[in-house]
Design goal:
Elements (H helix, E strand, L loop, with lengths): L2 H27 L9 H12 L3 E9 L10 H21 L4 E4 L1 H9 L4 H7 L3 E6 L9 H16 L9 E4 L6 H7 L4 E3 L20 H8 L8 H4 L3 E3 L12 E4 L2 E4 L17 H17 L6 E6 L10 H13 L4 E2 L2 H12 L3
Parallel strand pairs: 1-2, 1-9, 1-10, 2-3, 3-4, 4-5, 5-7, 8-9
Antiparallel strand pairs: 6-7
């Protein structure tokens, strides 16, 4: 090979190397391409994922004054039929309901060998105890524990006690915190004006004396302050003062009686459920959902008497609630599931 040929080859190699370097530099220095997913969307998705949910739950009580439920088969089966109707709706519309029993109906389930509560659990519903403890009696701590305990025992005899972690009601002059915790309850729902009776006047809404509570405010939702009512929190005494070291979760969230929504809870007995009631409830839920603190587990609930499940407007209620769930506004849950979600949230899970 001549010297001239060698020079040509070296020049060609040099040009090729320069071209390669140029291509590499172009790739390295080229501005980053637009991401496949908009960063604002990613941020929104991340924020949505980290937001604590807004749960929606119900209470249906098998009342303490239903003494005939323990021995009258016809009365018992009528109430059981209402609950079965409720479960049919829940299955169809992807809802989760909660039934809570006092002693008479629980005894009837055993006597008549008709365990509606286990059926409810099998359908994915929630159950609990209902504590119609006399609000006017200033029970000792031991007496208050006994009052809660006999109601828990009545339901524990029907289902796994781990399913029966909460009691609805129980407020009054007695120390309901000590009573509930002493009986093994983990949360208390259905909190109303009666619960303020155990607190000094300084911790009550203005004008809520014992006389005023017993005559007017007894079933008003509590805590009365809506900024506190719709967020479960722990307490360490019979008060609504939050204490993260407390052993009892106050799980309020009451919006009121379902069929009393349109009348602002001032309907004439017996109330009848209408589409207007449902529409008012939907407005209340959407209004709260738009302004709530999404960093905390939130909860709203309504009370539904057993006979209301036979009202024609119940179909409309379940349809509208399904729409809210599909829109991501809320999530159906049992009272126990909300307690468990709160525990997971406070532990950072």
């Amino acid at each position: 090979m001549t010297q001239t040929s060698q020079k040509k080859i070296m020049i060609a190699i040099g040009i090729a190397l320069l071209a390669t370097i140029g291509v590499l530099l172009t790739i390295i220095l080229r501005p980053t391409q637009e991401p496949l997913v908009d960063q604002e969307v990613v941020s929104d998705l991340s924020q949505e994922k980290s937001s604590a949910p807004l749960f929606f739950s119900t209470m249906t009580h098998m009342e303490g004054n239903w003494t005939q439920a323990a021995s009258n088969l016809a009365f018992f089966e009528k109430q059981a039929a209402y609950l079965k109707t409720a479960m049919v709706y829940a299955d169809e519309y992807d809802a989760v309901l909660t039934f809570e029993s006092e002693i008479p109906f629980a005894e009837g389930m055993l006597r008549f060998d008709h365990n509606v509560f286990q059926e409810a659990l099998d359908h994915g519903m929630g159950i609990g105890s209902h504590c119609d403890i006399s609000p006017k009696i200033d029970f000792t701590d031991e007496e208050m524990i006994a009052e809660f305990q006999k109601r828990k025992d009545a339901v524990d005899a029907l289902v796994d006690p781990l399913e029966n972690l909460g009691c609805s009601g129980g407020g009054g002059l007695g120390d309901w915190y000590t009573g509930a915790v002493g009986a093994g309850f983990k949360y208390i729902d259905g909190t109303v004006g009666y619960h303020y009776l155990a607190m000094p006047l300084s911790q009550r809404p203005e004008g809520w004396t014992n006389k005023a509570i017993l005559s007017e405010y007894y079933h008003y939702p509590a805590p009365w302050d809506e900024a506190q009512r719709y967020y479960p929190f722990r307490v360490s005494e019979s008060s609504f003062t939050e204490d993260s070291d407390g052993k009892l979760v106050v799980s309020g969230g009451s919006v009121g009686l379902l069929e009393g929504m349109a009348e602002d809870q001032d309907c004439q007995e017996p109330c009848k459920l209408t589409q207007d009631d449902v529409d008012v409830l939907i407005e209340k839920i959407r209004a709260f959902a738009a302004t709530r603190d999404t960093s905390r587990v939130a909860k709203m609930e309504v009370y539904i008497p057993t006979q209301t499940y036979d009202e024609p407007a119940m179909k409309y209620f379940f349809e509208q609630m399904r729409n809210l769930q599909e829109d991501g506004v809320l999530q159906w849950a049992s009272q126990k599931e909300i307690y468990e979600a709160f525990v997971a949230w406070e532990s950072g899970s």
